[in-house]
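Help: read this over?
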Amino acid sequence: MAIQASSEIVIDAPPDLIMEALADMDAVPSWSSVHKRVEVVDKHPDGLPHHVKVTISVTGIHDTELLEYNWGPDWMVWDADRTAQQHGQHGEYNLSRLGDEKTRVRFTITVEPWAPLPEFWAARARKKILYSALEGLRKRVMGREGSGPAR
C-alpha cells in the first residue's frame, strides 16, 4: 500500500531563490534530516541535477535510492525505481508566486514500500518527511541552515 504525504507553506522569497536551493543537491543533507548522503551522478544539459544517488533514513528505515529529476521554471519532480525498501517513489515541489517576495511551496510524495507498514509508523514518517521537505527548505532559503542561498 502506497504512503502519500502532501503539504504546503509560504516562504518569504521569490520562486527562483527557492528553485536555486532545491537544485543545490550537495546542501540537501544540511537542511533535510531525512537525507544522510547525496551524490549527483549526472546533470541535464542546463546543469541541473538529472540522476542523484541519495541515502535516506526515516524513523529507523534506511535506504539508498537512485532518483531521476526533471525540472521546470517553478517545479521539480523525481522518481525512483525499486530499492531495498521500496517498489518506487514519486515526489514533487510546485511553486506559485504570491508576490515579489512570497511563494507558495507545495510538496507531495508517494512511496510504495516493499512491505505493509503500521499506520503509526506511516504517520510518524509523513510528519518527519513533510517537516524536512518544507520547514527545512524554508530555513535553507532564509539562510538559517547550512550556507544558505539567501542573498
